[in-house]
Amino acid sequence: MAYETIIVEIDDHVATITLNRPDALNALNSHLLQELAQALGELDSNDKVRCIIVTGSAKAFAAGADIKEMSEKSFVDMYLGDFFEPATEAVTRVRKPIIAAVAGYALGGGCELAMMCDFIIAAENAKFGQPEINLGVIAGIGGTQRLTRYVGKSKSMDMHLTGRFMDAEEAERAGLVSRIVPAKQLMDETKKAAEKIAEKSMLASIAAKQAVNRSYETTLTEGLLFERRLFHSLFATEDQKEGMAAFQEKRTAQFRDR
Ligand code: CO8
What we know:
The protein folds into 2 domains: 4-196, 2-enoyl-CoA Hydratase, Chain A, domain 1, CATH 3.90.226; 200-247, Lyase 2-enoyl-coa Hydratase, Chain  A, domain 2. Helices cover 47% and strands 16% of the residues.
């Protein structure tokens, strides 16, 4: 499928979606969001793909929602149009692991998109921010909720109220990103992480993702129960037998998603 605002590449078991509106620092317009939603749906149902990377350019992961497209919209346009909904639902609906590889600006909707992925690997030059306050609005696709869960109330308030940017070091210290890598190695390092994930049993990967995500949605007691049931259920899989046999036989496990 040919896209105009994103590039989709599949290399072995890893798919990479590159946001591709360089003249607008990958600002998220409705066309890009619609293509992103479609690509994610297709990759999630492609049996060959076992891990997905979402990335941008060296200068910008995404500088936010497209301000030029939004600027003249009314309350009714935004409320009824709700043009962010399909993409945000598409990202959170994906069952396979998704890594955001962030270089440069991840602002507003760009930061929110990165946070919707399962984890973020940042280049040294990454900058995160929720600067919507400078435009007379606030975050609209999860920034106030997800950033607060990632970094806590104080830092989240600071980011949302002052609109300041957080560099990669601060983002790593605060728990927003899982690791920082040299800018030139961002894609190599992210692909290595994706390939590691792709080697695992997809059944266990999906269970791990569901269980971690559940921790955001429920009480500790319910979350622990959910985790325990998934843990128990994995003993019904051939991959559990294979993984534990391979450990004892001191060889690499060959998972078959069974
Ligand atoms: N939208 C549209 N165009 C953009 C955007 C954007 N968000 N960001 C950058 N661009 C464009 C610029 O207009 C410029 O284009 P042109 O040359 O045609 O004028 C080009 O990209 C390059 O940008 P700059 O010249 O500004 O580059 P600099 O290196 O000087 O600055 C910055 C880079 C700091 C990233 C700067 O471009 C900037 O501040 N951008 C805006 C960041 C921002 O405010 N983001 C938040 C947007 S609002 C949002 O994301 C809300 C999301 C939730 C909506 C939910 C609705 C339901």
